[in-house]
Amino acid sequence: PPPKVRATHPDCSVVLYFQEQEAECLEVIRSESQTPAPPGPPGQRGCLTEWDGVSCWSAVPVGHSQAVTCPDILHVFKKSKALIRRNCTELGWSFPSPPYYNACELEAIGSNNDTEAKKGYFVTMKVLYTCGYSTSLAALFLAIGIFSCFRKLHCTRNSIHIHFFTSFILRGAAVFIKDAVLFSDESINHCTMSTVNCKAAITFFQYSVLANFYWLLVEGMYLQTLLLLTFTSDKRYIWWYILIGWGVPMLTVCVWVVTRLWYDNHGCWDDYTSLYWWVIKAPILLAILVNFLIFLNVTRILAQKIRSPDISKNYKQQYMRLTKSTLLLIPLFGVHYVVFALFPEHIGVDARLYFELVLGSYQGFLVALLYCFLNGEVQAEIKRNWGKWQSSMESNVFNLATQDFTA
User: Which residues form the G-protein coupled receptors family 2 profile domain (predicted)?
Assistant: First the structure.
């Protein structure tokens, strides 16, 4: 059989530890029950293996005792050297001595680890990123509608923007779907949840995140292409961009799904400590690295063009506007993710959650703002059509008034 990697979500490590220990103990009990009991009085046969909810006590003869240590769980129990003992009597196992709550002291619980404080913190985080994604989705749908409705805005550049907006929409929708599937029912034990719906939601979420990063990469590649080709573009490139933006994430996610099914098919696939998480993380880091290099190259090209004496004043102003837009695109290129990319997942969790959930939820709104609402070409087209609509309305009102007067 293929090897199993028992990587677990940090929040579920304690629960899964005791479940695994209980399963092993129950297997021993089951095998003992199938073994014929030795002859003799029932009271002299000894104590059978028993699971007391914390430890597994192996079978021993009457008059013997057994000692176990505290469960070896990091950040839960102090490293106590005390032993818990139980005696096997004619009436069965005695009570643990000393009791677990005396022998195995819990780690000191500070204010940051308080359950209620944590619950309140995550509720606040959820409200913030729900508002952020809702705002982003509304802005992105409006931006796509604007690009689609006005014929003069139909071009390769805006087509790429629409795909880019769509990746943000999928990412926001994936967050809401994942929350609905994983956390809608508090009675469900998330640590042992392993349903098809749960895994499908996580798979869709990972695909949306990958697609979002690779359309960020496409935007960077397209900006560099515009500068290198002196603001001209070829429609043939759009299919390559689509292949990179949607195809590479699809291939990556398919490899990840097959890998998880074959080697690590446990839980809901939402753990980030598994070795196979690198199947998703490595392509994301590659996209971030390439985007960062593109950003440096674009900045260099713009600086050269602005300093060039052969460039007219109008072109310099155009380059300056593009430079400002490029500087604003730093967070869109995913450069801020580099700060956390090479650190383990358990380091800087609060800061990571804030950047990736709260600030990341408003990223779609920022994209729509930069590429659509603050776009001079879009504003001019909206004003032109608004003026035409006003003129048409005034003309209709004048015709109606004229008809009433002549009548």
Answer: 24-108, 125-375
Same-domain status, 321 and 226: yes
From 357, 372, 359, 351, select the one nearest 331 (Cα to Cα): 359
Distance CA(337)–CA(340), nearest Å, equals 6
CA dist 386 → 148, 379, 380 (Å) = 16, 10, 10
Contact call for residues 358 and 132 (beta carbons, < 8 A): yes
Cα 222 from chain centroid (whole Å): 26
More confident residue, 345 or 265: 265
Q: What is the pLDDT of residue 366?
A: 87
Residues 209 and 319 in one domain: yes
Which of residues 49 and 42 earns the better pLDDT score? 49
Q: Please say if the pLDDT value at position 91 is more than 50.
A: yes
> pLDDT tens digits, residue range 154-207?
888 889 999 999 999 999 999 999 888 887 666 666 666 678 888 999 999 999
Contact 288, 213 (CB under 8 A): yes
Closest CA to 50 of 83, 28, 20: 28
Q: Report the domain count for the chain.
A: 2
Host domain of residue 64: 10-103
